[in-house]
Design brief:
Distance between the termini: 42 Å
Shape: globular
GO molecular function: methenyltetrahydrofolate cyclohydrolase activity; methylenetetrahydrofolate dehydrogenase (NADP+) activity
CATH superfamily of the largest domain: NAD(P)-binding Rossmann-like Domain
Function: Catalyzes the oxidation of 5,10-methylenetetrahydrofolate to 5,10-methenyltetrahydrofolate and then the hydrolysis of 5,10-methenyltetrahydrofolate to 10-formyltetrahydrofolate.
Family: Belongs to the tetrahydrofolate dehydrogenase/cyclohydrolase family.
Structural class: alpha/beta
Helix content: 25-40%
CATH topology of the largest domain: Rossmann fold
Number of strands: 11
Largest sheet: 6 strands, parallel
Strand content: 5-15%
CATH class of the largest domain: Alpha Beta
Order of helices and strands: HHEHEHEHEHHHEHEHEEEEHEH
Subunit structure: Homodimer.
GO cellular component, one term: cytosol
């Protein structure tokens, strides 16, 4: 995936680090909606002239508006709360009917990042009491062989959720693989019938994709009003941007989408009460893009060079945190915001699937 950096790369200042340490407790329990890394098309990189214009706008804004610090929406805190809730429900289900939810993960190839994601999901399953099943397949395996493994999990009564780790090797058609997953076990929410129901009024999917569901859960738990608000989603991927826009519309927000062909993206974004960015471009969204008092959910996880860190890089979001936290009313940090929510939602979806299959309320 392409990556672009602005000429004046935004860095977290000590002030921003201090802000990130201050969090509010979540205010609501789980919403009724039943990790993949975010994959989004890269937005148009900004040139030097545009960056200078933004810097000028930011200076003007700071001259007329008082310094403010946003409330930090703590994804780690909320995800731990959700895991506790899932753990309690799994224990209740096991005691009542003797069923333990099972999640199967299929990993094709040897990508280090995918291996890390699968390992983290397996650990999370162990923490909450979900049985995990894992199949590691070679890079050069055929589509037909992968589909056979999916079919075996489709038929396995101990498996209630099936996840195919993305991305897949280039010789495979992603839609063929995802379509093979039983819609009743599609805990990733990527089956076209699940997405189709998400898009239709009066219909509800069996599963909502995990990262978009996590974004909405953060808004709900921090009691952030959605109905009647203007929302902008940056990025239109099938995994994050498109489904989260549909979720916002289901909750009666007025939604605009910003993508690589959007003219004046900063102008469109600056009108939003809620901004959800899933573009995959480090520090794309500057403070001048944010409407004062807006809520910002940053899905981006982008590595940028940093010689001062042991790894030689650090992770930043799509939003320049140091600038946005002075303008927004609430914001997710990166890391520690949306990321932990994705796995928490996967666990929640798997539990929901087991409940549905065994008719357990």
């Amino acid at each position: 995936m392409a990556s672009f950096l602005l000429p004046d790369r935004c860095a977290l200042s000590p002030m921003a680090e201090a802000v990130a340490a201050r969090t509010l407790p979540p205010l609501r329990r789980a919403h009724s909606y039943g990790f993949q890394p975010p994959v989004a098309i890269p937005c148009r990189p900004l040139g030097l002239a545009a960056a200078r214009s933004i810097a000028s706008h930011s200076s003007t804004l700071s001259a007329v508006a008082p310094e403010t610090t946003a409330k930090v929406i703590d994804g780690k805190l909320v995800s731990n709360q959700i895991k506790d809730e899932v753990t309690a429900e799994i224990a209740r289900m096991k005691n009542a009917i003797g069923i333990v939810p099972g999640l199967a993960v299929i990993l094709v190839g040897s990508r280090k990042d995918s291996q890390t994601y699968v390992r983290n999901k397996k650990k999370a399953c162990e923490v909450v009491g979900i049985n995990s099943y894992e199949v590691n397949l070679p890079e050069d395996i055929t589509e037909e062989e992968v589909v056979k493994h999916i079919a075996s999990f489709n038929d396995d009564s101990a498996v209630h959720g099936i996840l195919v780790q993305l991305p897949l090797p280039r010789h495979m058609k992603e839609e063929n693989i995802l379509n093979a997953v039983n819609i009743g076990k599609d805990v990733d929410g990527f089956h076209p019938l699940n997405i189709g129901c998400l898009a239709m009024q009066g219909r509800d999917p069996l599963f909502v994709p995990c990262t978009p569901k996590g974004c909405m859960e953060l808004l709900h738990r921090y009691d952030i009003e959605i109905k009647g608000k203007r929302a902008v989603v940056i990025g239109r991927s099938n995994i994050v941007g498109m489904p989260v826009a549909l979720l916002l519309q289901k909750e009666n927000a007025t939604v605009s989408m910003v993508h690589s062909y959007t003219k004046n993206p900063e102008e469109v974004t600056s009108q939003a009460d809620i901004v959800i960015s899933a573009a995959g471009v480090a520090n794309l969204v500057r403070g001048s893009w944010i409407k004062p008092g807006a809520v910002v959910i940053d899905v981006g996880i982008n590595p940028v060079d940093d010689a001062e860190t042991p790894r030689g890089y650090r992770l930043v979001g799509d939003v320049c945190y140091e600038e946005a936290c002075k303008v927004a009313s609430a914001i997710t940090p990166v890391p520690g915001g949306v990321g932990p929510m994705t796995i928490a939602m996967l666990l929640s979806n798997t539990l929901g699937s087991a409940k549905r299959i065994h008719n357990f309320n």
